[in-house]
Amino acid sequence: MEKEQRIAWEAQCIQEEPPACTATCPLHVDVRQFMGEMAKGNLAEAYRVLHRNMPFPGIFGRICDHPCETKCRRGEIGEAVAIGSLERVCVEWHGSPDSVKLLPRKSKNVAVIGGDIAGLVAAYDLRKKGFGVTLFETGKQLGAGFRKFSEKLLPAAVIAAELAILKDMRVEIKLGAVLEGSTTEDLLEEFDAVFIDRISSTCSRLNIETGATGQIAADPTTAGTGRPGVFAGGSNGDSPILLAAAGRKGALSIERFLQAAHMTIGREDEGPYETRLYTNLKGIDPLDRLVPAAAEIGFSPEEAQKEAARCIQCECMECVKVCQYLAHYKKYPKQYIRQFFNNEKVLHGAAHSSNKIINSCTNCGLCATVCPNGLSMGAVCLEGRHSMLRGNYMPPSAHEFPLQDMAFSTGEEFALCRHQPGTQQSAYLYFPSCQLSATAPAEVLESYRVLCENLPGGVGILLGCCGAPAFWSGRDPLFRENLDTIREQWHSMGQPAVITACCTCQSVFRDHLPEITVKPLWEILETASLIRTAARQEVVGQAIAVVDPCSSRNDPETQSGVRRILASLGFSLEELPLSGALAECCGFGGLVFNANPRLDDTIVTRRAGESDLDYLAYCAMCRDKFVNAGKRTAHIIELLFPSVAGNDPWSRSWISWSDRRRSRQRVKNELLVRLGEGVERAMKPHEKITLYIEPEQLRTFDNRRILESDLRRVVLDAEETGKRLRHNQSGLYRATLKLGNTTFWVDYAPENEGYRIFNAYCHRMNITGVK
Amino acid sequence: MKFSEEEVQNWKCEACGEDLVMREVVFSYMRGTFHVDLPACPKCDQVLITEELAMGKMAEVEKILEDK
Q1: Which residues of B make CB contacts under 8 Å with A?
Q2: Spans of all domains in chain A
Q3: Is the interface score ipTM higher than 0.85?
Q4: CATH 3.20.20.70 is held by the domain A18-97+278-308
Q5: Against a cut of 0.80, is the pTM above it?
Q6: Angle, vertex CA A147, rays to CA A150 and CA A102, nearest 5
Q7: B15/A724 touch (CB, cutoff 8 Å), yes or no
Q8: pLDDT tens per residue across span A495-510
Q9: Does A351 touch chain B (CB under 8 A)?
Q10: Domain B5-66 has CATH 3.10.20
């Protein structure tokens, strides 16, 4: 991941943007956190939150005209949270102000001319930053702007207590100062910078040029006057909180000026601004503002707690809400992107956790669909996988098994490209997909027969794999090589229209082989009136829930076509919570089923529980994943081309990866027979061995990704070489063999003409020496 | 990773006809190397790895090394 790419991706994730209340607040008080603490009844902590951004909280907490409430998102579903009133409750409860922590004293000194609101805040902020501050006020007391409020709203005692803080902060206060005829030049001889409170009558005593309005002119971004080092702020008619913001701007500018920093860069978000945060209000019940029982007193502590709890704690989290993967690791995209970048560029793959996280995304695209800015964590994770491969730290266990399965599909055991038996040309080319052939071989063969009988111009057959496993695992050279093979085969067949029976294949063809016309089987059947509505009389009328595969997300025609077919067959359909454009992945996508089996299990189990109805899938992997999790799930091809009349397509139990290979071989072999090629493939020695295995053990071995062919090879090797261990009491043999990157161990004993398998396990760690 | 004497005594290397003895076995995976005492044939170096070890400790270490 390059830095520019990281910045661009991070900018798309807006979860860290402030809520509207904070962005609208001229002082950017963290209202969301304040409300969180208030709702917990934690007034001390709530005060701390206020105090972080708000000077003289006892004063502003009472008199702020709370512009934040105008942008409160709660206001769109009920009434805005009573932010102003709750601030009052908090500061009244707190009483005398907390002391202020000062940064270490800096050598520079600043003069603040005028002790009205802007001047007081500038003095407070500058002193807090460590500068020496002398505050000049020609009047007898500070804070004229605060003294316009009624005693009830803002008691004089509160003003006195809050302003006394300045003294604690060691601001040098010169009341009754005589400035007559002084110029800024005079002040700059003594001070390193000057802030002028334009509202204060003090500034009128200064001998300084004023603009057309009679006010000292100041730049709106920097508060700078014409004279470097002299800043001014505050305008007549501004609310107290805007005057406070003017004082804060002056202090920030003086800090920049004294540190010789750039005066304008990165100041867009000073004062009120529009936030980019997105918050979905769907599903939040409307709630009106709580009315205090004693209106003249205001909220009681209990009422305040209740009112604060109406705050919806604005955040985005749209993707995390719908993605098990993102939720599982308890972060949001911006954090993942930063973590992945640091893992790659700083730690070079040694982050101890990122590698597995990068391999745990299903690349289903749901996050990008729900993200207000279209951020795709799939793209982020794919780039992460490419980096891992480039840096040579991709764990081999993550993708090796599915890539071996892909190699099986593209190898001699399954791959085939032929014209329709008895013809020499193809108007169509049927690509039934590796995994549909693996799970429904008879139905694939029957569907091909029906296509051949009914479509004009010849229907060729192309068995292979679209290459999705290579793509998901980041093996781009392999993926491109596979696409080239498909393209060449398609050319050699006369560029026919391709018929797919898998949404993943469909999307790979659409995205990566755009020159090929590709249509889903279901659309071809519907268009050619080949839906045999009588095929499944026994299950008609049943209510089922349709499972849209994630790869159908951008294919609404297929989604609606499948529903039309199911309705025409007589089923009543229920929609799952997330379907259509929001379709979820079953965990096969991104090869997560292999890279993170535990997360995969969580995904499938949760999804299997979303409806009590039987599921109907039109993706082979969705179907088998749900069936493996114990959910009754059928594939649409079983409804259209029943292989066994009268059976229940929902009753099938799990199938092993070895079965999946056998089924693919069967499809190819039967097609070869139809083609009259019946070439007997010579059986390899290990294939001739008979094994006896208990079904429940088969499942254990399958979960361990141990194929029956692996068992056969280990046993054959032990029998041929005599290299094996023998158990003294039971006589059982324990044999071992390294195949590829995996070392297998098999416990077995001869039985009849074959061998009984008692156990099998494996590891990837290599034995490199025995001392 | 300790092995009981019993476990070692239970197995014999069939090819060599030897009882297994505890030996130091070197493992390597994803740039990591480990030394573990395991039962092995004194003649042909055939090592014994149990299911418990392969699916337990070894799998655990593999996962840690994979995320390094």
Answers
A1: 9-15, 20, 23-30, 33-35, 40, 44-49, 51, 54-55, 58-59, 61-64, 66-68
A2: 18-97+278-308, 109-258, 318-394, 399-527, 537-640, 685-763
A3: yes
A4: no
A5: yes
A6: 120
A7: yes
A8: 999 999 999 999 999 9
A9: yes
A10: yes
